[in-house]
Amino acid sequence: MIVLGVILLIIGILAHVSLLTTVGGILVVVGAVLWILGATGRAIGGRKHYF
Fold first, then answer.
1. Contact 27, 2 (CB under 8 A)
2. Are 21 and 15 in contact (CB under 8 A)?
3. Which run of H or of E encompasses 36?
4. Which is it for the CA torsion 18, 24, 13, 36, positive or negative?
5. What whole-number distance in Å separates Cα of residue 32 and Cα of residue 51?
6. Separation between Cα atoms, residue 29 and residue 8, nearest integer Å
7. Angstrom distance (rounded) from CA 44 to CA 12
8. Which of 14, 31, 39, 43 gets the most CB atoms within 10 Å of its CB?
9. What's the rounded Cα separation, in Å, for the pair 31 and 39?
């Protein structure tokens, strides 16, 4: 999710498409939060790992 977000961010910035930039930023933030919570061992939504 983080990799997809970074790719969308780069494409959005290079192509000047604000929708891709916004979606990419949201995916990076959500992916980072899920990664941090998963690394601490906290189960989210009944799942311990998201990948």
1. yes
2. no
3. helix 18-39
4. positive
5. 12
6. 13
7. 30
8. 31
9. 12
Q: pLDDT tens per residue, the chain (51 residues)?
A: 889 999 999 999 999 999 999 999 999 999 998 888 877 776 666 666 555
**Separation CA 30–CA 36 (nearest Å):** 10
Cα-Cα end-to-end distance for the chain: 8
Angle between helical axes of 2-15 and 18-39 (0-180°, round to 10): 160
The structure tokens listed for 44 are 């989210």
- Token pair for 30: 């959500």
